[in-house]
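sry for the spam today, last one i promise. struct tokens for design, 64 residues
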């Protein structure tokens, strides 16, 4: 996920993206717990994406 993509989205789209990332994070954690996750780097990437989306949500809500 690129910063330029997130900068063009509005708050509703960002919240939807955050929800989707949180679901993905949960699924990855469950896969890791059951030893089904082969690429564990996905967890870190998803965490960074969540943080990035939360940062843009905060920036956009402060601007209003």
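last one done:
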């Amino acid at each position: 996920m690129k910063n330029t993509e997130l900068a063009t989205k509005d708050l509703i789209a960002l919240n939807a993206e955050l929800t989707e990332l949180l679901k993905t994070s949960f699924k990855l954690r469950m896969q890791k717990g059951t030893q089904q996750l082969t690429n564990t780097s996905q967890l870190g990437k998803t965490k960074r994406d969540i943080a990035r989306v939360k940062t843009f949500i905060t920036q956009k809500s402060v601007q209003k």
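Residues 31 and 37 are 5 Å apart (CA to CA). ok im logging off now
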